[in-house]
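Q: Please design a sequence for this.
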């Protein structure tokens, strides 16, 4: 299964903010959309990603104010991305080795979606269920 197949099931909706937004504004959007990370996109260029982990480690634990801190102060700028043609194994390896939970999907340097660790795990579980059903059908025939 490829990233594109996950996106075709999940959808390609992407939520983004600007690096000049406050962290509080970013968290508000994340809460409203029920997402764990948000992309920072400016002029169609992916500039970074802000996750709940960034907030917890760079605002809460350092006793900063989310209403005063700007996104660019805490966002991750070294963003790990994938292509629509990449497979699940590659994504799992990236997420594991790079210790990230979200992978923006780029096509021709433009963000066309984002997948999370839960999207990848769900897809793998679905594949395993199909395999088990196929094997059960084969055995019982």
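A: Design:
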């Amino acid at each position: 299964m490829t990233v594109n197949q996950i996106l075709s099931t999940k959808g390609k909706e992407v939520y983004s903010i600007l690096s000049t937004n406050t962290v509080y504004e970013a968290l508000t959007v994340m809460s409203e959309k029920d997402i764990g990370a948000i992309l920072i996109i400016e002029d169609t260029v992916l500039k970074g990603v802000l996750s709940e982990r960034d907030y917890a480690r760079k605002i809460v634990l350092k006793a900063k104010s989310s209403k005063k801190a700007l996104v660019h102060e805490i966002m991750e700028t070294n963003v790990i991305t994938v292509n629509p043609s990449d497979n699940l194994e590659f994504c799992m390896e990236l997420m594991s080795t790079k210790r990230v939970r979200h992978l923006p999907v780029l096509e021709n340097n433009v963000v066309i979606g984002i997948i999370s660790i839960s999207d990848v795990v769900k897809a793998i579980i679905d594949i395993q269920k199909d395999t088990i059903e196929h094997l059960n059908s084969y055995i019982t025939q």
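Q: Thanks. Anything notable?
A: The beta strands are 16-17, 37-42, 45-51, 102-107, 110-116. The chain has six helices and five strands.
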